[in-house]
Model the fold of this input.
Amino acid sequence: MAERTLIETKGVSKRFGSLTAVDNVTFRIDEGEAVGIIGPNGAGKTTFFNLLTGLFPPTEGRIYLSGKEITKAPPYKRVMMGIVRTFQLVSVFDSLKAIDNLVLSHVKFSRQRSGMRFFLSSYRQQEILASCTEALRTMGIANKAETMTSELSYGDKRKLEIAIALSLRPKLLLLDEPFAGLSDGEIAEVLDLINRVKETLTLIIIEHKISRIVDLVGRLSVMHEGRLIAEGKPKEVLCDALVREVYWGKEEGLVCSV
Done:
């Protein structure tokens, strides 16, 4: 295992009864890398994210973070270790102000947390607020910190969800279809913001809009029927014969060139 490897899976599988959603996947990502995971619907991409973040335990295989096995670590511990994700559907609290969504996440994953008493006495601590405000600023929505989340546009809610993840200071950020439901203009804004933050952390992104991430990531991994079928530089992977067979043509405007 290389010294710079951040997260690694060895022969990871996940079965639900007779259905194999992830099939013997060995995968690694080094610190500072940006990797895209693509594949048809039902390829196992989100299930693989769920394994990395602890939402699902693997049926087989092992998972390592910086060389330490975390296969059985629950999701909250993985967040505290620096593994943070977003979801396909925006997951924020409409009944709270934007800033309070971030503060609540800090309280939830604080090592010092002691229930509501901690929340009431500490949620406005200067250190927490500074971190949350900085994350909102990074995502370009600091001016909406006191806005009720229900009043935000869908695009701003997506930015808020990413800001929540950033405020937890992740080592590894996993984005699950961050452009889903966004207009072309909103996609361009979010893509620009992701390009900025990827320089400060390790990134894995699932995305169906392949043309949007070809220049964002340094490596593409392709999943099909639960298996990892190709990996490498984005343009080379997109020209792979097997990848073209199972995925090519699902998005217009892509040109196969190396």
About this structure: Residues 112-121 have pLDDT under 50 and may be disordered.
